[in-house]
Amino acid sequence: NAIQATRKGKLQRALNTLYGSVLSTISLTVPAVLLIGEVTGTKVILGLEQY
After folding, report:
1. Degrees to nearest 5, angle at CA 27 with 26 and 28
2. H helices within 1-51, ranges in order?
3. pLDDT tens-place string over residues 3-14
4. Rounded to whole angstroms, how far apart are CA atoms 12 and 7?
5. Which carries the bigger pLDDT value, residue 6 or residue 49?
């Protein structure tokens, strides 16, 4: 647990846990949203365009 690691002074372990959680969440959410957009015929804008 990241909170327990932080309390024990293991900040690097806590940050690695945080980054891993964020990466896995993004890796699962973005493809799911794109798939739902394709199935429903909805245009999905990820906000990654350059201006």
Report:
1. 90
2. 2-7, 11-40
3. 787 788 888 888
4. 12
5. 6
